[in-house]
Amino acid sequence: MFEKEIEEYENIRQEYQQKIADRMGSMQWMEYNEILFSAHSCAIEGNSFTVDDTRILREKGMAMIPVGRSLLECTEMADHFRAFDYMVSHLDSMFDETLLKEVNRLATEHTLGYRVPGAVAGAYTTEDMAAGDTVFGDHETLIARVPKLMDSTQRALDAGQHPMMVAAKWHGYYEYLHPFRDGNGRTGRLLSNFILLRAGHPLLIVRLEDRSEYISSLKLIRTEGTDEFLVTFFFKTAINRMKGELAQKRKNTLPTMFF
Asked: What pTM did the predictor assign?
C-alpha cells in the first residue's frame, strides 16, 4: 500500500534536491523554508500573517510589526520561529516526550497565558479538550498514550520505514490525542517536519488553501478509524509543492524580453 505514492515522491524528490535544495546555500534554504512553513502553519490556526509579513518579521524582529497585524499575532509568529530554530538545531535528539514538550513550550510560551490564563506552556492539559466541532476524549486517558506513541514512532524510524509514512501516521495519532492546552496543531506540524528533516527530506508545508482537506483527513481518523486519507494527503501535498517549485524555477529561468 502506498507503493505508487512513494515511487512518485522519491522520483520528484531527487530532482527537487538536485535542482532546488542543493542549489541554495544551506542558510538561505532553511530561511526560505522557515518563513513559508511558519506563515502557513500559523495561518491554519487563524493567524492573518502573509508570507511577506512573516519574512519582514523574521528579518526585522518585533521592532517592525507589519501594518494591520496584532501584537498577539506577531508574538505567536516569533514563538514559532523559536520552536522551529530549536527543532532544526536538535535533529540528533531522540523522538520522545522531552522533545515534544520543549517544542510545544517554545511554540506557545508567550501567547498561552493570554489565551488560557494559568496554563503552563509545554505542560499537558489538565482538562478535557475541544476544537472546532470536535470533542476529544478523556484527557488523562489520551495523555497516558503519548509515551507509547513517541516510542513506537522512534522504533519505526530506527527500522527504516519511509519518513513520509512515519510523519503522517505520527501526526494523525498525535492530533487525535491532542495532549496540550494550546498549540497542538503547530507542534504536530513542527515534529512531523522533524521526522522529515532528520531523514534529509524537504519540509512538508500544509498551505492555508489546503486547510479544509487537511482537517477533513484528520477527522476521518476519528470517524472512519483509518489514517489512509491523511497519509495520501501528506504525499500529495509534498509532491505538489516540489512540482510547483520546480515549475516556478523553470519559468523564471527562461529568457524574458523587456523590449
From this structure: 0.95
